[in-house]
Amino acid sequence: MKTPQMENFDKAFKSLGDPQNRPTEEERKRNTSELSDRRKALLVPASKELILSTGITEAELMRKTGGDMSQIIVWATQIYMQKSDEIRKNIKS
Hints:
By secondary structure, this protein is an all-alpha fold. It has five helices and no strands. Helix 1 (about 5-15) runs antiparallel to helix 3 (about 35-50) and helix 3 crosses helix 5 (about 70-90).
């Protein structure tokens, strides 16, 4: 069973598909696969929440990422994948 933090992380990613959160024409013209800062900002609160739920402190989070949105999102994604694997293994046993 997913934790509330994992559920919020899921919802944040799904919200990128909402009409108001889709890439703007200008963002599409950049022709890059990287999310715009506007869209990254939508993921950061849920990403931080997921990271902090593992026992990491806010100070440690800032020290390891320097507050960089991309690094925070990548770290949270790694935690999410790890927790998902653990949940799958527990369900199988």
